[in-house]
Amino acid sequence: MLVSAAVCPHPPLLVPEVAGEAASELDGLRAACAEAVRRLGDADVVVVVGGADETRAYGPGATGTLKPYGLDRRFGPEGGEPLPLSLTIGCWLLRDLAGTHVRYQSVAFGAAPEECLGLGRALADSAGRVALLVMGDGTACLSQKAPGYLDERAEAFDAEVAKALGHADAAALAALSPELSGELQAAGRAAWQVLAGAVTAPGAGPFGAEPLAHEAPYGVGYHVASWLHAPTAPVRHMPG
Questions:
Q1: CATH classification of the domain holding 179
Q2: Does residue 225 have a pLDDT over 80?
């Protein structure tokens, strides 16, 4: 059963050593991510979920590395199977959670919503008390200097995501369009829909949410939120 979730972005610049002299620009975002992770609380397992080229689980020997981003730093055993960027940043965020059982699960960027929701339900049922660390960036089209240049649809899309994450609205996350998400380079869409599936698994809800950050310092939407099982929270069912 899912008991908690943290939603964080996964830019390499979140790691101060990668950002270098610009590290201070993301201090607030780092603090929000640290708080979201802290709130995961006591769980039998923390599953880190993030977008990648394919959907698959990684074994306990998997390793995150930031070498492709200019920092020769590794998280995990030497010689382990490499994690994709989203899971590598999740691994970095969990670096201080000693003794916590952690698993890593990627979801294909282009996975259909039904596949994402099903994966979320399966993850929620994979242990007695499950916490999710959901890694995903918003649109990359919020300014002319953004990776995807400026797209006037991006601001409304990110505002919709921020509202859904801030209200534990699984239905709104499940309804995000894969096509529009792809056009706006919203790398977190599939991972957010895994979360939507997890919170609507049998016996999982309801959940309360608190938004901790919604920023776009480089024209990319960065969302941070904390979701906690809350028996008195309103239930937002997915259509069905």
A1: 3.40.830.10
A2: yes
